[in-house]
Specification:
- This protein has 1528 residues and is of the alpha+beta class.
- 60% of the residues lie in helices and 8% in strands.
- The strands form eight sheets. A seven-stranded mixed β-sheet has the order 6-7-21-8-17-11-12, sandwiched between helices. Strands 4-3-2-1-5 form a five-stranded antiparallel β-sheet.
- The radius of gyration is 54 Å and the shape is extended.
Amino acid sequence: MGTPVNIIVGSHVWLEDPQVCWIDGQVTKINGKDAEIEAGNRKKVVAKLSKIYPKDTEAPAGGVDDMTKLSYLHEPGVLQNLKTRYELNEIYTYTGNILIAINPFQRLPHIYDLHMMQQYKGAPFGELSPHIFAVADVAYRAMINEGKSNSILVSGESGAGKTETTKMLMRYLAFLGGRAATEGRTVEQQVLESNPVLEAFGNAKTVRNNNSSRFGKFVEIQFDKSGRISGAAIRTYLLERSRVCQINDPERNYHCFYLLCAAPQEEIEKYKLGSPKTFHYLNQSKCYELDDMNDSLEYLATRRAMDIVGISQQEQEAIFRVVAAILHIGNIDFAKGKEVDSSIPKDDKAKFHLKTTAELLMCDTDGLEDALCKRVMVTPEEVIKRSLDPQSAAVSRDGLAKTIYSRLFDWLVNKINNSIGQDSNSKSLIGVLDIYGFESFKSNSFEQFCINFTNEKLQQHFNQHVFKMEQEEYTKEQINWSYIEFVDNQDVLDLIEKKPGGIIALLDEACMFPKSTHETFSNKLYQTFKNHKRFIKPKLSRTNFTISHYAGEVQYQSDQFLDKNKDYVVAEHQDLLSASKCSFVAGLFPPLPEETSKSSKFSSIGSRFKLQLQQLMETLSSTEPHYIRCVKPNNLLKPAIFENANIMQQLRCGGVLEAIRISCAGYPTRRAFFEFVNRFSLLAPEVTEAQHDEKIVCQKILEKVRLKGYQIGKTKVFLRAGQMAELDAQRAQVLGHAAKTIQQRIRTHQARKHYLALRKKTTYVQSLWRGRLALKLYQKMRREAAAVKIQKNIRRYDARKSYIKLHASVLTLQTALRAIAAHKEFSFRKQTKASIIIQARWRCHKAASYYKKLKKGAIVTQCRWRGNVARKELRKLKMAARETGALKEAKDKLEKRVEELTWRLQLEKSLRANLEESKTQEIAKLQNSLQEMQNKVDETNAMLVKERENVKVIEEAPPVVKEIEVIVEDTQKIESLTAEVESLQTSLESEKQKADAFESKYNEAQACSEESSKKLEDSEKKVCQLQEILTRLEEKITNIESENQVLRQQALAMTPNKFPSVRTRSIIQRVDSGHIGVEARTTLDIHSSSMNHRESSEVEDKPQKSLNEKQQENQELLIRCIAQHLGFAGNRPVAACIVYKCLLHWRSFEVERTSVFDRIIQIVGHAIETQDNNDVLAYWLCNTSTLVLLLQRTLKASGAAGMAPQRRRSSSGTLFGRMTQSFRGAPPGVNVSLISGSVSGGVDTLRHVEAKYPALLFKQQLTAYVEKIYGMIRDNLKKEISPLLGLCIQAPRTSRASLVKGSSRSVANTESQKALIAHWQGIVKSLGNFLNTLKENHVPPFLVRKVFTQMFSFINVQLFNSLLLRRECCSFSNGEFVKAGLAELEDWCYKATDEYAGSAWDELKHIRQAIGFLVIHQKPKKTLDEISHDLCPVLSIQQLYRISTMYWDDKYGTHSVSPDVISNMRVMMTEDSNSAVSNSFLLDDDSSIPFSVDDISKSKEQIDISDVDPPPLIRENSGFSFLLPRPD
């Protein structure tokens, strides 16, 4: 694809690299046929032009979802596209209709959930992002529409994810065509549940995968005529039998052997097992355990899976007994016997395993030994028994083990098929083929030969299908094409399977001769195919051979080809095991038919496999194929690792590169007209300005550049290989010339700009220097003026200083003289005062001494006199004490009491005295300190006053020139006092600062308290509101409990007998529990109808009837009247007002049995049968909601307040439960009193109403109809705007082709934009018409707001999900178009006003923020925090990641967010997936009813029904005179 024509200097190219396959670089020099390239790692590389490929520098940053859209369809382009998408977690990519799935090695649950299935259901192929659901949906739709069976071929190497892909395909097919469960399990569930069993017995660890399927599987899912799954079957191919006996390190044998060795201890003892290391069939490899697999738990899981698929416990025991027997068979070793070429068990260990095997297979031990060590040869004359040597006996042993395991696996598959069940009447099916991929190892044996033979067959089928798709594409586009040659692999298939002379035929022939060896077989191959171009004989081997497959050359080792190809069962083995006492083992080896036993015993694995493969290809040929190629990105089995070489090898083995070669043989590059014009219009700008038809523009561009061999179809341009590169080269030249012109203009502009800046700076420098000189002159003049001023001030200072010194000396002298005179006066006065104080104290002392002596004498006299009196009294008391002892005791007690009280009194006095003394001392201290401070302050003030006076005296005194010696003590005092004053001022300032700080803190505290008080007030308001809500809820609960109590009593009284039957009691219990079923409701209705008939007959016999004939006539007339469209009185529906007035007047709410409610409900139900007429639906929505509102405000439950609360009945609370209830037959015992509410001006006088059961049920049915009609109206609007929404989100893609560049295209652009906006205007028109319909029918604004809120939520969900699922919608231009459409919706909301639109505009927040992100500029500069918090706060990380990775700028060519932001999003998504279940990035549509009756009641004002005129039909009837307005 690289030629000197399209590779020029500066071209970006791909060149081969031995490590990473392909690296990109830029051509720096071209020398003949060689080119010098600067690679991405700054290395210079020289390569041939024929070996390099052009690189598309304008490829989208996130890759393309279909690789046929690549500008250059070659290996490096495919690899780079897959790598780019894999880094963005886009694991699926189309190549035409082929799906490439790269294993992410991590769970991505959001792309497989139910939301994603619903999105892909019925979506056209290629419209949404690539997905396995899209492939399955195409297959299912083709089967349903065309009636032809389809098949999905899943291929890939071990570990690529084939099994998981198959599971997902079956899940989606079950979602599309699942049927009701049979015995708890559906067909698809049984097929999925069979996987663990088949994996346990058919999967093993290989070098590349820990759970590799060692067999092919074709699952046929059968469908009935209606597209429902009706049956299934599993077909298996080529189980790798040789693995049972031979494994290589570090692989493992089949999982079931290791699971059985890890079984519970009783199982191990029963089967006499041990560690896997002790068995020959397992210890050939050192790998016994897997890191991510617990064999003991897997054993239990396998047993559970076997239970699920219908394998009984006896069969399970027999299965694992056979598995254990195979392990023991492998440990039977042989040694030479006594006879020549004979063999016997080697030792006691071998005999033990021989005996154990016989016990497990329930056959004779000696017979088993003879079957292993001997052969019976039947001749016409006699029967000869021949012994086998130890080597032949070991071969016989391994053959028996392989045969038993193969038969066991086939039995499991048949058992699973029988358990699932097949539909013999099914005529259509979808087959899912999970087949092994192409294998090429260091050592390739017979299994790899058969696997690669299968892949060759499938590749031929694949090539034919791809070629067919290519031809269909050309035919569809109506281009001229001739037959395209492509590489066919029929010669390889002939080499392998042709009869006679193919490799398989030669292998079968060699196996039929006993003396043939692998050397003779290899020599036969060398001789037969020595001239075949696909067969190669290695130089250094005599037994190996190489076949050149479509995916590369593979060298096979023929050492064991003969042994592995033999499939016949040894007659001794057949006879031994068919005679087993175990029915299961005997069933594995049924007796052979006589004709079979008489014929040749030889059968070939290769021939049988070829026959199976032929049947498979016939099945695939009869179906429409779909291909999924699974790819393993790395051999480490870890996420986020993309190994280029590994991927290229798998793409080559999977036939993807072969499909690309087929495409390259024709027209590999296909571009839609608008894409071609957008990219190459600059090659012929005059054409794009003159033409509007894009097809003509494309034709003119191609003619101008003189390309040949291209084709122009109906919608696309088809280019040959290399022509896209040639166009890009010419485009690069045009862009280069334009770039040079731009550079010339920019350099001129920069030079001019530099000159202007230099001139400006020169002027500025000159002005600076001139300013500097002026500044120096000014500074000189300033210094001279300052010197003169300094001299003047110094002279003045000297004179002032001498004067102040003289003044201070005089002042000091005067102060000293005055102080001496004052001191003498003070000493005299002090002495006088002291003498007076001494005289006063002496006189006081004399008076006090005299008083104390007089007082002491009086006390002594009194004491002596009292003592005498007391002694006399004592004598009397002693005499009395001798007379009685009780007085003494009392005295002692009193004395003790007195002493105690005296002690306590003294203690209290001492404590009080101490306390008073301490208080007095403290007060004294405080007063002293206060007094000291006051004295200091007074002294300071006095000294300051004196100093001021002295200063005044000195100033007034005449100057003295005489120098006198001055004492400076007073000056020092003044200085100390001044310092003290300054310190006091400092402390005062600090105190002021503290006061300011305290004041600021106080203000802050006051502000906080005010804020807290506000919060408290708000909380109180909220508490009040919650209390009001709680009160309303309590009232509502009371009403509901009353109604439910009535309904329960009705149910309890349903039976005519006194005691209900058992069946009726069970029905009543189910009704009370809220889980009544369909049968119960039907039985209840039938029973109630029969009971109603009997009750009505009883009532007819009574003399008093519930309704007289006149009332019945009036009811009939009312029903006929409301069946008509009565219109509105103002904004009030006439029908609802008339019905309410009549029911209230007739006291219908108080009767126990009436039919008027049934008749009204029937009229409403019949009227809304026409679901498409929104006018009728809106009319009845207004009437029913108004009537429900009147009943809600009128009827209030009160009689059931004392009843015990019961649980709410769910059957009558649901929509259809409330509709299907019957009003008749209310029990006599039900009597719920309801007090009518106030309707302002509605009725003159409202009385208390004793409402009965029918009235309550009538209200519930009306509520159900309000909800139903609301839902019908909403769904009608959804149906109307859904097609328009699809056009809106697709509009940019289909119409961007007409937006050709050029200034003269403004008219065309305007017209195209009008065409785009027309879809949005269609939505706006539908919304406007719908709003007018609701307004004309006076639907309550509350309901209108709810409808439009849900509609805008629906628009938000549809647009946002389409944006996330379609990459072509995540573009800049599409964002602009959708933004323009959203502006139309916003304008509609503004015109509709908040009364009807409400918060509908807010429901578009997801799509608004997503579109805002698409149209902002400079996305790479935005951080994740800015995006997630400022731009798109509503969107989740998953949604932002999806938009960021899918975004592409088709207008300006800018990039999405930076790689750092993308990596941060990945980290956050990983953390979210680890902490919780990842949410889907898609939105859900809410179809619930978003209101209740209470909401309607609160939102609507009082209704005045007093002045509503009755319609003419009943106005003249005297029975309705109460409806006429009363005169004032």
